[in-house]
Amino acid sequence: MNQPPAVLPAANDPCWCGSGRKYKRCHKGTEGRIQPGVISPMRHVPDHIGKPPYADTGVVPRYSEDRVKSPEVIERMRIAGEKAAEILRRAGEIVKPGMTTDEIDIFVHDLTIEMGGYPSPLNYHGYPKSVCTSVNEVICHGIPDSRVLEDGDIINLDVTIYINGVHGDTNATFCVGNVSDEDKKLIRVTEECMWHGIEADWTAVTKDGSRTAQFEHTILVTADGVDILTGGPGS
Questions:
Q1: Phi and psi dihedrals of 49, rounded to 5?
Q2: What are phi and psi of 165, to 5 degrees?
Q3: pTM of this structure
Q4: What is the tens place of the pLDDT at every residue in 182-206?
Q5: Segment 72-117, tens digit of pLDDT
Q6: Torsions phi, psi of 180, nearest 5?
């Protein structure tokens, strides 16, 4: 298909693609949308790493555990949360224009195993990768692929580690290079909303192509309030 021109047509002019349709009825508003790249094969996890029940089959068993956790389980969750926070922080540090989301997946996959854990997204209901990378208008569960990150993109990294029989889950949105003030505000306000919330098919996208940001923590609800398990050391 033809590539969009530098100067786009007016709404009622013929579309640049050559379809003969009016631009507003054809490609208007789609030029900046994320186009999927090539997805590489699932990566291997060594046999010595403890795996969740779905790791081999992709079938997630029905949840039947008591929602009230024992002190021993809570401590394991706390450790998993700290490791998830560390993986997310380090993954965010490597984000830059010119790299692919698949390269981020490799980094997260290898680092998770290095920490002694299993990358929880891998084969969860058949999900093919070890992290979710949601770029620009992709709301969540974006699949890492060969697409190259561009200057001005924003990307959400959703990291989950399975270790000692429990999961630690967290995510954050990062800037790729030089990002617009509007996108910086989107990211800032989204994170603020997450904190207010705490005090109080895979990929989903916005209908109109507008950008989206997301932040997430695993929290422990206690009789005295909440404890953030993926906030990093000292949280």
A1: -85, 130
A2: 85, 5
A3: 0.76
A4: 999 999 998 988 887 776 565 666 6
A5: 999 999 999 999 999 999 999 999 999 999 999 999 999 999 999 9
A6: -65, 155
* 8 Å CB contact between 192 and 213: no
The answer to whether 87 and 108 are in contact (CB under 8 A) is: yes
Cβ neighbour number for residue 15 with a 10 Å cutoff = 19
CB 104 within 8 A of CB 171: no
- Please tell me the distance from the alpha carbon of residue 226 to that of residue 229, in angstroms, as a whole number: 9
CA distance readout (Å), 184 to 79, 166, 189, 206, 227: 31, 34, 9, 18, 27
Distance CA 189, CA 195 (A): 10
Structural domains of the chain, ranges and CATH numbers in brackets? 50-55+66-228 (3.90.230.10)
Number of Cβ within 10 Å of residue 207's Cβ equals 6
15: which 2 tokens? 């579309």
Residue at 201: amino acid letter: D
What the block records as the tokens of 83 is 């490791």
